[in-house]
Amino acid sequence: MARWLLVAGMIAGLALAGCKKTPEPPATETMADMTGAIGAGGQETQSIVDSILAMPNHKTFSAALAASGVAAKLAGNGPFTVFAPTDAAFAQVPVATRDAWMRPESKAVLAGVLDYHIVPGRLTATDLAARIEAGGGKTTLTTAGGQDISLSMSGNKILLTAAGGNRAVVSTADLDRKNGVIHVVDAVLLPRM
């Protein structure tokens, strides 16, 4: 019974979070906040997970990566494309839902939410825009969790529409890392549960 109430509460929280249809203006983060260690010859030396852990506006995402076990995946060879929600993006998710995600018994649920922010392969903003154009204004990517996410353009920004119905805008693109690329987004993307 308690497990059912936990799952029901999480679904209700996700539904409320999914009500936000129009993205908010992104939180400001400077390129200096997001740059990683560059080695000789301009080669990026930091992994995606090391970079995210060092980003000042991604503390909640960092904690979630560690709690879910997904951090180990993003430390691997990849390549990966990661849509990284800011702390402000996580603040849009109801507190009860965020707290439930971080409980040890919800590790698989949290990993599912985070895997929905990861796409296998290295896709720059130029690559994404080209796919959107080739698709007549829309494209679909399959995430590491096996669910699809839709991409389109909103002016000159890339707009992601989650299976859960909510949307996020890429506020900072193309943070190149040794095992992939990070795109900062302004909302937590919600997969189908």
The helix tally amounts to: 9
| CA-based gyration radius | 16 Å
Question: How would a textbook summarize the main sheet?
Answer: 7 strands, mixed
> Residue ranges: pLDDT <50 for 5 or more in a row?
1-43
Strand content: 15-25%
The CATH architecture can be named as: Roll
The total number of structural domains is 1
- Along the chain, the helix and strand elements come as HHHHHEHHHEHEEEEE
Query: Structural class, please?
Result: alpha+beta
CATH homologous superfamily caption: FAS1 domain
* Backbone shape: globular
Number of strands: 7
Q: What would the CATH topology be? A: FAS1 domain
Distance between the termini: 19 Å
Q: For the residues shown, what is the average pLDDT? A: 82
Give the CATH class: Mainly Beta
Which strand order spans the largest sheet, edge to edge or round the barrel?
Answer: 2-1-7-6-5-4-3
Helix percent reads 25-40%
How would you describe the overall organization of this protein?
The chain has 193 residues and is α+β, with helices and mostly antiparallel strands. The chain has a single domain (2-185), classed as Roll (FAS1 domain). The protein contains nine helices and seven strands. The protein has helices at residues 2-17, 31-34, 48-54, 59-68, 70-74, 87-91, 95-101, 107-115, 125-134; strands at 80-85, 118-120, 138-142, 148-154, 157-161, 167-177, 180-185. Helix 1 crosses helix 7 (95-101) and helix 4 (59-68) crosses helix 8 (107-115). It is globular and about 40 Å long. Residues 1-43 have low confidence and may be disordered.
